[in-house]
UniProtKB/TrEMBL annotation:
Keywords annotated in UniProt: Aspartyl protease, Glycoprotein, Hydrolase, Protease
The protein's name: Aspartic proteinase PCS1
Annotated ranges, domain Peptidase A1: 75-433
Active site, per annotation: 93, 302
Amino acid sequence: MRACILCNSFQNPCFEFLSYLLLCAVIFCFLQPKLCSSQTATPPALVLPLKTQEIPSGSLPRSPNKLRFHQNVSLTVSLTVGNPPQNVSMVIDTGSELSWLHCNKTQNFSSIFDPTRSSSYSAIPCSSPTCTNRTQDFSIPASCDPNNLCHAILSYADASSSEGNLASDTFNLGTSDIPGLVFGCMDSVFSSNSDEDSKNTGLMGMNRGSLSFVSQMEFPKFSYCISGHDFSGLLLLGDTNFSSISPLNYTPLIQIPTPLPYFDRVAYTVQLEGIKVSEKLLPIPKSVFEPDHTGAGQTMVDSGTQFTFLLGPAYTALRNEFLNQTTGVLSVLDDPSFIFQGAMDLCYRVPLTRTTLPRLPTVSLLFQGAEMTVSGESILYRVPGQVVGNDSVYCFTFGNSDLLGVEAYVIGHHHQQNMWMEFDLQRSRIGLAQVQCDLESQRYGLRV
């Protein structure tokens, strides 16, 4: 209070001294703007075109907590890496942590990153805190190679693997250069179908782990929207004022602080509370949707998985009710030996002459505070190349996790079409809103 009284006069030397300090501060910040910026400042929002790409069966290995099936569609984004910049295409995966690129020129990949051509490339030594402290969520701990560089081995549930060194380089997205981003420069990728391995350069890890792309960038949130019309869309990195006809409904992210053997602590885990077929709520106890004492039974939102998979009791209840409501509408494929992607055992025969599907029941996934409704052509998926007599084969786009040996519910990107998906890392929640993603892409200035 006394300081305020002493400095309340324009003629007072105290006021002149404060004015002098203020002038010095303004000059200093003009000369050194980075030093005056807030340490909590976040990078500006980036809007990137997102597309789906058909990939050969088994072309991308799956992480240990992923499903061991072969999907045929991936979400990809294009960017450049290194100096001078090299064009790369990366699969967007909210279920993985470490971003990585194919770096071995001797392997038969259509797109690789060559670190020897980049002046900004830097391999990370195994003594670095990045190697010793930030790889703790890897399924196999990082180690030292003969050159004392940080070596990572990523093993996958389908017996595929990828290994190489951790490194850093400049990533360019849109007009923004991001120096020093940590990724895996992979020399060895083993796959059951190596001749047709990945038309993409690598994978962009987007989960909550410390080395994921979004964690390194310190984005407060990111969003994506996948069109159900032509499978284009957009990926928005950073904060934005989402304004659409439909408001976002939020569901909180679930975190269990105690390490559990079957709980992925860095996944985007939400609480599934129920399932409806049309307007009928299935009689499934809520305990079925809750993780048990081992962590098994979590519900993960995963852009790297194509379809949605439910644990046995929930899947059986859904399958039976959907089958009941489609009796007389569709002809069931009577072939017990046919299980699409090893987990989807409810399939139908549709005449090849039919151009559209009949009206089908909707399926709604009920979360705490939000709801995801799957309808229309997203309910059934036409199996490529599968014909029985004069009929094509369509399968129910929900599968049984138990048939895959996976102890989790997984919400895949097929059921996120025409859904604005916001991952709010700052407030630990996911926002959902049904929108027309092709229109949203145009609103953000992207051609679709």
